[in-house]
Each structure stands twice: as C-alpha cells, then as structure tokens.
Amino acid sequence: MFARSTRILLWIFSVAAIAGFIALSVHRMAGQQLPEPAEQVLLDHAERLAEGQALYQAPESRFAIPVMPGMPWLLSLLVAMFGPGLWEARLLSLLGSLAVAGLTLVIVRAETRSGLLGIVSAGLMLAGFAAFELRHGVASPEPIALALGFGALCVLRFTSGTLGPIVAALLASASFFVHPLGAGFFVAALAYLTLHHSRHALIFAASAAVAWGGGYLVLSEALGSWFNFYAWDAPLSLLRFQPRHLLHAVGDELLGRLGVLTFSAVLAFALPTRPWRGPVGLWMWGAFAAVGFSLLATQNLRVSARDLLPALVALAIVGPISAQRVIQHLAAWPGSSRLGGQTVVMAALVLQFVMLIAGATAVVLPPAA
User: Fold this and answer.
1) CA separation for the pair 207, 214 (Å, rounded)
2) DSSP code for 368
3) Domain ranges of the chain
4) Between the chain's N and C termini, which has fewer beta carbons within 10 Å?
5) CA nearest 279: which of 157, 107, 168?
6) Would you give per-residue pLDDT tens digits along the chain (369 residues)?
7) Which residues pair with 300 in a beta bridge?
C-alpha cells in the first residue's frame, strides 16, 4: 500500500510540475510585465541584428551584462518575422527549458529502464526553476545552452562510431556560443572519452578545435573586437572571490533544497564500480562539470539563483540513476528486498518534491495580505 501510494504521489507531483511550469510560462509570456534588465539586453541585440546593424556596440560600463551571440541570433529571426516583442525571447527560453526536460526524461528512462523515474526527473528539474526563484517565463540563454550541451552528451552516450564525437563537438560548441557554461560540456566529454575511448577522444578534441576554435575566429572577424569583450572581458571582470555565496550555494542549495538528489549521487561513490566509470559514468562527469561551473558562477558580482541551473539539471539526472544503482547493489545481499529498496527511493523522491514545492510557493503564490 505504501509503495503504491508513493508511486501515485510521484506521478501527481511530476505531471503537476511540468504542467504548472508550462502554464505559468505561457501566462508570463502573454502578459505585459516589464522586461528584466538581461531580457532587455537580449532584445536590443536581436533588434540590431534584425535591422542589419552590428550585434555588439561599445558598452556603457566595463561591468556590462555578458551576451554571447547564439540567442540574439535566434531571437533576431523571430524579430525579423514578427517585429520586436518580449514574448519571442521568453518563447525561446520556454522551448529550451522543455528541451532540457525532455532530454532529462529520455536519459533517466534509458539508464534506469523506468518511465516513472524519467518523468520524475523532468518534473524535479522544472520544479527547481521556481524553487530557485527562476521566475517562470523570464528569458535567458541558459536553457538553450543546457539543451545543446546535454544533447552533446546524449550523442556520445547513445551512438557508436566516429560520427558521434564529431556531432557532440558541434553541439558543445554551439552551447558555448549561446552561453559560456557550454565550456563545461567540453570538459565532461573529453574527460569521459579519454578514460574510455582514447581514439574518440582525439576525434572529439580535433572536431572541437575546428568547431569551437574556428567558429570563434570567424565570429571575432565578423562581429568585431567587442565580441571578444563580451565573450571574455565582461565575464572575467565580474569575477570576485565570495566565500559567503559559495557556502550558501553548497550548504543551502545543493545540500538543502537539492539534498535528496545530492545525497543519492554521493551514495554512488560507495559502489564497487566507481560512478565515473563505464558508459553510465558519462553522466557523473557531466555532473562534475555542471556543479563546478555552477559554483564558479556564484563568484561574480551579478550572482543569482540562475547560476545553479546547470547543477540542478545534472543532479536531476544523476540522482535517480545513482539511487537505482545503489538499490540494485544492495538487493543482491542475502535477505535484502529490491522492492523494499525501490519504495525507499520513491519515498525519498517524494520528499525532494516537497522540499522544492515548499521553496516554490514563496515565488509562485502571492504574499498574504
């Protein structure tokens, strides 16, 4: 009875999280709210592209908001067709978020052979947007970059042959040109391939050198010197060592709101097979890179909860996968019950949903009068 109840609760929470995210995003997209500063910057860049002007102009301050050319270029296509509108930028972010959720579902379902765990992972990821005060519908390039980056890892994981590393390098390069966090996927993919497929690692590195290095040279030539400023100088000028923000990210967020997923991932290190080895180990390498880049992102003057989005997505993937691997290992012990272990995992995921929902209510629901 308890096992059945937890499964039903997980289905309800997951579907509600996905449907609620879409509904709130569409509501904000259709609303008349004023744009956030970062949204206005994206729209300004896209308008210049659509009008045939230079993408980058001299910034008003050396602490300008960093903007990579990927999302403004995509947005400019919509601006050219429909005219400038904030809904277009928010639509791109919504589609990117749903793409990440879809990839999360596919990855976890394929690795665990459980449709329930797949939908739970997608639901947890989208529920985390509200829990981290990432207001639904606000335009940002991170979801698109994450969709391209995790798409690159999916290509490496679920394809064979030399074409996989080439396509993965192209997707990872595209991710970087949307947002600098895409660099983390190069690190994860190269570390995994070096450990498991040295020949594919060379192919990936060569392809990345052409796609990323060549693309960067082409963009520098086409977009002018201000591209280098927005790609490197602006982000680096914002970096500051802020231990308080680092401790908050680790203690309050990773070990707090995402504590169940984090603890599940940590438990995998007790298994006889190291969690970064084998084909499924690719996702742990992805988690290493995502968490590392998320923590690095907290060390800047414009720190926000959005910085932890890569870690949120990575833990939504490796958490359920690791929990199932641990349960399968424990089930092989004499007197152990696999069904009982699965029930514990389901109950833990219910608690993770409760923790995220508790954090989301302060953002989604209006304050009491």
Assistant:
1) 10
2) P
3) 2-37+96-364
4) C
5) 157
6) 677 888 889 999 999 999 988 988 888 887 767 778 888 888 888 999 888 888 888 776 666 778 899 999 999 999 999 988 889 999 999 999 999 999 999 999 999 999 999 999 999 999 988 777 666 678 889 999 999 999 999 999 999 889 999 999 999 999 999 998 899 999 999 999 999 999 999 999 999 999 998 998 998 888 887 888 888 777 777 778 888 888 888 988 899 889 999 999 999 998 888 899 999 999 999 999 999 999 988 888 777 777 889 999 999 999 999 988 888 777 666 555 555 567 788 888 999 998 888 766 665 555 554
7) 239
- Can you spell out the DSSP letters for 220-286? HHHH-HHHHIIIIIHHHHHB---HHHHHIIIIIIIIIITHHHHHHHHHGGGSSS-TTSSTTHHHHHH
Yes or no: say if 24 and 133 are a contact pair by the CB < 8 Å rule: no
Q: What is the pTM assigned to this prediction?
A: 0.92
